TrEMBL record:
It comes from the Bacteria. Keywords: Metal-binding, Signal. This is Molybdate ABC transporter substrate-binding protein. Transmembrane segments: none annotated. InterPro entries: ModA, ModA/WtpA, YvgL-like_PBP2. Belongs to the bacterial solute-binding protein ModA family.
């Protein structure tokens, strides 16, 4: 009888330990870390949104890979880990879409922007329009690399429309992303720079001289989508929904987005 009771107790202990182990594993599974590849111009707004979102979702932590949309698209193409792609241009999102790397059913345009001409706060320039730029009167103009940086692509479209792209070639200082363009002007390394209105909005070292006519360049929209090989489909979708919610849109507006 005693042997039988001892056997039953051992079995019961194994069951308890087994259940406890399963519980630990379940908790681990519930913990989600989202890796988001995002355009550099979204840095401040997304950092704010991350804090709000994580405070409301105890089991989710968010990490960002900020950079130019073109480079991010290439990284995703090369297999870099990412759950969500937030691009500053439709062209770069179209690229990864054409390669079958995103879940196209999740694609959504979540904000917009404008293109502005900026100068350092100490600048005495009185330019009031992109049309008034005279290559002979400036030493350096900071722009994004057109081939990989959306703001550079939009900038090139504007200057080509105005017949200024070729005359400005010897003056151009190329930035690897829009934040580098902003930094060039903040530090006085360039007389002028072209960035998004949201980038100028967050800087206290530059002033906006002019805003581009939207008809001079492609529409500046920010599409987001879930990367196809994500292991966190539901969490990724929930964060995308958060971006287009009233709370998310309010934050984007607070950082100068349209």
């Amino acid at each position: 009888m005693k042997i039988k009771q001892l056997f039953i107790m051992v079995i019961a202990m194994v069951i308890v330990v087994g259940c406890s182990g399963n519980g630990v594993k379940k908790t681990d599974v519930d913990e989600v870390e989202l890796m988001i590849s995002a355009a550099a111009s979204l840095t401040d707004a997304l950092t704010d949104l991350k804090n709000t979102y994580e405070a409301e979702h105890d089991n989710v932590s968010i990490s960002f890979n900020f950079g130019s949309s073109g480079k991010l698209a290439t990284q995703i193409e090369q297999g870099a880990p990412s759950d969500i792609f937030l691009s500053a241009s439709s062209k770069d999102m179209d690229k990864v879409d054409s390669l079958g790397l995103i879940d196209k059913s999740t694609r959504v345009d979540f904000t917009k922007n404008a293109l502005v001409l900026i100068a350092n706060n100490d600048s005495q320039m009185t330019i009031r329009s992109f049309k008034e730029i005279d290559p002979a009167t400036i030493s350096h103009l900071a722009v994004g690399v057109p081939e990989s940086v959306p703001v550079g692509r939009y900038t090139k479209e504007v200057f080509e429309h105005l017949g200024l792209w070729e005359p400005l070639q010897s003056k151009l200082v190329m930035g690897s992303d829009v934040r580098q363009v902003l930094t060039h002007v903040e530090m006085g390394n360039a007389d002028l720079g072209v960035v998004y209105s949201s980038d100028a909005f967050i800087s206290d070292k530059v002033k906006v001289l002019a805003e581009s006519d939207p008809a001079w360049h492609a529409q500046i929209v920010y599409p987001g989508a879930i990367v196809k090989n994500t292991n966190h489909q539901q969490a990724a979708q929930d964060f995308l929904d958060f971006l287009i919610s009233e709370k998310g849109q309010t934050v984007f507006e607070e950082y100068g987005f349209k």
